């Protein structure tokens, strides 16, 4: 159970940026020739960024700190540096703020800086947090993406988008600590919106040192000037180095290694003839997945059950995709459909024990939260089709930090299934499967895919990346 104090700390992103880091950041901004008239920190907390700004940007006309926590604002109004008339602290919620109210003149140079919460909307949902923006599909996801994983987002992403939208109508700078993956999403947003951008850079932050966290994070810096659209980004390992590499857009895609990608760009396509699929999605492992003990299947509740073999298949979890030779006993999964939307009531006649099992555990299956199950047959699953039942498969786990493909054949005379962290392509013939497997593990293909992957992402290997390979250039 989450303690109230811990819950509020998570909900409001109350992880304060230490003064030593805010000073380091402001010093770097001065090196970048940032000269703001107005400085805004939308979630100022204990005010360390405001204090550092007042020292490093003495010529600024106005410094504004905003926070939802009334106690912080009261404390800040009693700080010695608050004696400056140009510093103002405001008690307000960022989600309700109109940033335009702080503009004095149209040609003001504005600096928005700080550290937004590093939490996702689903994390806030799990703790029943209320500190959320008004819900809408702000990323314009479509179909299944809009109601499954891709509709989950970092709260800071929404907040940063609000900031860059505002800065497009003005001029100035953004300097914000955020997850590295969020920084790239913001660059992607700027690119897709065709927004003005003069310069962009990220500086990796030692989160263990400054925040006692293990998340990959950075300082995202953007300089906005009207009429300039430069969507490359210089990536620095830290705030103390002058060396960097540049990530940029090629073929409407952000590329992690432009030099390597250009070398193998002839392999790229946005219209793949062979499609990588994700594994089975059922969102109820306690009921749908099993271990085998003797003649019985044992579910996640520890119950021993006997089910017909016709709907039970060997299951390879993502963590075991590269260790299949070491697996003595596979897990098993209940596959209720051969294709998405198939009527599941036929199980009642085909496999009465299985139907009884589903009925007796319906309370678990019926309360699955994802909207993909609504208006679909009862006990539905996703990530199945004809391709799921082919005997030969090549698979890789999306969570891996290395490109490792593996080849699978029937287990116990049945095609293997994968969980939804895995991507795979499937084949009817062994010769074809082995040919594709050799190609995928060639240095050429490994280099091509690696140039597209950002390894610090939570799920670095994505179907959108795997599906960029033009097989026709390799097979014909």
Give structural notes.
- This protein is of the alpha/beta class.
- Helices cover 28% and strands 21% of the residues.
- It has helices at 4-11, 19-31, 48-56, 70-76, 121-126, 143-147, 155-168, 180-192, 207-211, 258-263, 285-288, 347-350, 352-360, 362-366, 430-440, 443-450, 463-466, 472-475; strands spanning 38-41, 62-67, 87-91, 109-115, 171-179, 199-205, 217-224, 233-236, 244-250, 253-255, 277-278, 289-293, 296-299, 304-305, 312-316, 331-334, 392-397, 406-408, 417-418, 422-427.
- A ten-stranded mixed sheet has the order 3-2-1-4-5-7-6-8-9-10, with helices on both faces. A six-stranded mixed sheet has the order 14-13-12-16-15-19.
- Strand 12 (289-293) and strand 13 (296-299) form a beta hairpin.
- Helix 2 (19-31) runs parallel beside helix 3.
- The longest helix has 14 residues, at 155-168.
- The N and C termini lie far apart (58 Å).
**Based on helices, strands and strand pairing, what is the structural class?**
alpha/beta
Task: Give a short account of the largest sheet.
Answer: 10 strands, mixed
Estimate the strand proportion. Answer: 15-25%
What is the share of helical residues?
A: 25-40%
Q: Could you give the topology of this structure?
A:
Layout: H1 4-11, H2 19-31, E1 38-41, H3 48-56, E2 62-67, H4 70-76, E3 87-91, E4 109-115, H5 121-126, H6 143-147, H7 155-168, E5 171-179, H8 180-192, E6 199-205, H9 207-211, E7 217-224, E8 233-236, E9 244-250, E10 253-255, H10 258-263, E11 277-278, H11 285-288, E12 289-293, E13 296-299, E14 304-305, E15 312-316, E16 331-334, H12 347-350, H13 352-360, H14 362-366, E17 392-397, E18 406-408, E19 417-418, E20 422-427, H15 430-440, H16 443-450, H17 463-466, H18 472-475
Helix pairs in contact: 2-3, 7-8
